[in-house]
Amino acid sequence: MARGPKRHLKRLAAPKHWMLDKLGGVF
Protein backbone atom coordinates (compact mmCIF):
# COMPACT_ATOMS: atom_id res chain seq x y z
CA MET A 1 0.00 0.00 0.00
CA ALA A 2 2.84 2.37 0.84
CA ARG A 3 4.33 1.65 -2.59
CA GLY A 4 2.75 3.51 -5.48
CA PRO A 5 0.62 6.02 -3.54
CA LYS A 6 -0.11 7.82 -6.82
CA ARG A 7 -2.04 4.77 -8.03
CA HIS A 8 -4.29 4.92 -4.98
CA LEU A 9 -4.76 8.65 -5.45
CA LYS A 10 -5.92 8.09 -9.03
CA ARG A 11 -8.21 5.24 -7.95
CA LEU A 12 -9.82 7.23 -5.14
CA ALA A 13 -9.36 10.47 -7.07
CA ALA A 14 -8.52 12.03 -3.71
CA PRO A 15 -6.93 15.47 -3.27
CA LYS A 16 -3.31 16.14 -2.31
CA HIS A 17 -4.10 16.50 1.38
CA TRP A 18 -5.23 12.85 1.37
CA MET A 19 -1.73 11.74 0.39
CA LEU A 20 -0.21 13.96 3.08
CA ASP A 21 -2.49 12.37 5.69
CA LYS A 22 -1.40 8.88 4.62
CA LEU A 23 2.28 9.84 4.77
CA GLY A 24 1.71 11.52 8.14
CA GLY A 25 0.24 8.29 9.48
CA VAL A 26 -3.20 9.71 10.22
CA PHE A 27 -5.01 6.83 8.52
Structure description:
The protein starts with a helix and ends with a helix. It has helices at 5-12, 16-24. The mean pLDDT is 61. The chain is flat and about 20 Å long. 0% of the residues are buried. With 27 residues, the protein is mainly α. It has 2 helices and no strands.
As a percent range, the share of helical residues equals: 55-70%
* Strand elements, count: 0
- What class would the helix/strand composition place it in? mainly alpha
The CA-CA distance between the termini, in Å, is 12 Å
Number of helices: 2
Poorly predicted spans = none
Q: Indicate the radius of gyration in whole angstroms.
A: 8 Å
Q: Average pLDDT value?
A: 61
The run of helices and strands is: HH
The percent range for strand residues is under 5%
The major beta sheet can be summarized as: none
What is the approximate shape? flat
Domain Small ribosomal subunit protein eS4 N-terminal: 3-27
Protein name: Ribosomal protein S4e N-terminal domain-containing protein
GO molecular function: RNA binding
Organism: Plectus sambesii
Summarize this, please?
The chain has 27 residues and is mainly α.
Name the features:
single chain; mainly alpha
